[in-house]
Amino acid sequence: MVRRALVFYGEFEEKGSNVQDSDRQSPQTTKDAILKGIQEIIQEVTDVPSEKVQYGMRFVCDLGIDSLSMIEVAVQAEDKYGIIIPDEDLAGLDLVDDAVNYICEGLERTGELQNALARMQS
To answer: Pick the catalytic residue: 66, 79, 89, 94?
Structure first.
């Protein structure tokens, strides 16, 4: 899987490679992997079942996550993905989609996307 992530992000090239297009990881696959990580964190912090944490769900209204639990979710996401989520940015993360996109963009900005994908697969 790490090889697939490297191929997708242009970090791995091999003459005569037999890597098929199906082996390349799409941006949606990356976001789905981040969603899975967020689901695990939220279940651990709040006891909300991971299958309930889906795109389009609002943290407060739909999942019942209070502000203190949201801070704990953010701290664990920072540790898991090696990014920093400032308080002012955290306040703007209303939807699960917002958090997934924020983490994905943060990893791309820091160049840590490949490392994060490798950690998620191990």
So the answer is: 66
| Residue from 1, 47, 42, 43 nearest 24 by CA | 1
User: What pLDDT is stored for residue 73 in this prediction?
Assistant: 97
What is the domain extent for residue 47?
Answer: 26-112
Residue 16 forms part of a structural domain: no
Name the stretches of the chain with pLDDT < 70.
1-27, 112-122
User: Is pTM beyond 0.85 here?
Assistant: no
Write the CA distances from 43 to 47, 85, 96, integer angstroms. 5, 20, 13
The CATH number covering residue 61 comes to: 1.10.1200.10
Residue 32 covered by a domain: yes
d(Cα 101, Cα 40) in Å, to the nearest integer? 17
**Whole-angstrom distance, CA of residue 79 vs CA of residue 71:** 12
| Residue 7 maps to a domain | no
Give pLDDT, residue 112: 62
Catalytic residue flag (residue 94): no
Structure tokens at 100: 């997934």
